[in-house]
Specification:
- With 214 residues, the chain is mainly alpha-helical.
- The chain is 50% helix and 5% strand.
- It has 6 helices and 2 strands, in the order αααββααα.
- The chain has a two-stranded antiparallel ribbon with strand order 1-2.
- A hairpin with a 5-residue loop joins strand 1 and strand 2.
- The N and C termini lie far apart (95 Å).
C-alpha cells in the first residue's frame, strides 16, 4: 500500500528521562553504611569542607550539599548507636566529626550571606533590630525591639521594664567583674601547670615543639 504524497513516515517515540549516576537507595537503607564497608575497621574518607571552599559555591549547591551532609550524619549516628549496642568500636569515628565540621562551616557561610544581604538592603547588622541597654542588675544586654499595637508611653507592659540600674548596684557589678577575672586567672595558671607537667613527663615532645616553632 502506497502512502499519499506529503504524508510523513511515523517516527518512533522514545521516553526521555534524566540520567542519574548515584546509587538509588530508598527507605531504611539510607540510615546504613555501604555494604562494602561492613566489617571494616577503617573506612577511607575525605577532608571536611572549609569556609573558603564553600564560599565559592552557589546557594543552590549549598542547599543540596546540606542535605547530603545531613543524610551522611544520620547514617553515621545510626552506625555509632549500633556499635554501642554491640559493644564494638565504630569504624573511622572521625567521619562524624568531619561531617559536623562541614555542616558548621556551611551554616557559617549561609549566615554570612544573609548578613551581607541584610546590610545591603536595610543597613542593619542584626536580623532583629535592637540596642545595647543596661538592665536593673547593671548588666549590658542586647534589647531586641518589638512592634507594639500602641505607643510606648501608653504601653504598661513596656513601661514596667527598667533599662537603668540604681547606684548601689555598682558595687555588685564590680564584684562580678573581679570574680570573672579570678576565674580566668585560675584557668590560665592551671593550664600552665598542666603544660609544665607534660613537659617534664615528655621532654622529647617539648624539644620537638620548640624546634618546630623556631
Amino acid at each position: 500500500m502506497q502512502r499519499p504524497p506529503g504524508c510523513l513516515s511515523p517516527k518512533p517515540h522514545f521516553r526521555e528521562g534524566l540520567l542519574h549516576a548515584t546509587l538509588s537507595r530508598k527507605g531504611l537503607e539510607e540510615f546504613f553504611d555501604d555494604p562494602k564497608n561492613w566489617g571494616e575497621e577503617k573506612v577511607k574518607s575525605g577532608a571536611s569542607w572549609t569556609c573558603q571552599q564553600l564560599r565559592n559555591k552557589s546557594n543552590e549547591d549549598l542547599h543540596k550539599l546540606w542535605y547530603v551532609l545531613l543524610k551522611e550524619r544520620n547514617m553515621l549516628l545510626t552506625l555509632e548507636q549500633e556499635a554501642k549496642r554491640q559493644r564494638l568500636p565504630m569504624p573511622s569515628p572521625e567521619r562524624l566529626e568531619k561531617v559536623v565540621d562541614s555542616m558548621d562551616a556551611l551554616d557559617k557561610v549561609v549566615q554570612e550571606r544573609e548578613d551581607a544581604l541584610r546590610l545591603l538592603q536595610t543597613g542593619q547588622e542584626k536580623a532583629r533590630p535592637g540596642a545595647w541597654r543596661r538592665d536593673i542588675f547593671g548588666r549590658i544586654i542586647w534589647h531586641k525591639f518589638k512592634q507594639w499595637p500602641i505607643p510606648w508611653y501608653l504601653n504598661k507592659r513596656y513601661n514596667r521594664k527598667r533599662f537603668f540600674a540604681m547606684p548601689y548596684v555598682e558595687r555588685f557589678v564590680r564584684l562580678r567583674f573581679e570574680k570573672y577575672a579570678r576565674t580566668e586567672s585560675r584557668k590560665k595558671s592551671l593550664k600552665k601547670k598542666k603544660e609544665k607537667i607534660l613537659q617534664e613527663k615528655f621532654p622529647r615532645l617539648s624539644e620537638a615543639q620548640k624546634s618546630s616553632l623556631a
